Amino acid sequence: MLVDALGRPLRFIVTAGQVGDITQAPALLQGQTGDAVLADKAYDSNALRETIKSMGAEAVIPSNRSRKIIIPHDEATYKDRNRIERCFNRMKHFRRFATRYDRRAIHFQGFVYLLAAMIWMR
Q: What are its GO biological-process terms (predicted)?
């Protein structure tokens, strides 16, 4: 999921549970603009950093432990990354989202659109 600076959902892609999130990051960022992209250690890859750089944004991503040369990040800016966590927590107030009762991805995706609209209305 991609959120704006206020923690409101902009884009999301529903994937299978075993798929890593980083595989969808370039698709989520396509066509977006901004000064910085904040993400956690799971998104630390050279390819994603290049995608963010091509957008003209700063990658605020802590380095993964396996990285031989640590890439520094702005820790003050990184503190704002909790906004995506807040967005997920707002969505998890709805049992249908938190437990993912829907058998089909299209039904779950439709409910996520509804939740996103409700969050934007706040």
A: DNA transposition
Strand partners, 11: 2
| 35 within 8 A of 58, measured Cβ to Cβ | yes
How far from 4 is each of 54, 65, 72, CA to CA, in Å?
Answer: 19, 28, 23
CATH of the structural domain 2-121, one choice from 3.40.50, 3.30.420, 1.20.1530, 3.30.1050: 3.30.420
Residues in the chain: 122
**Which position has the token pair 């995608």?**
51
Q: Which residues of the chain have pLDDT under 50?
A: none
C-alpha distances (whole Å) from 9 to each of 12, 88, 107 are: 8, 9, 18
pTM value is 0.82
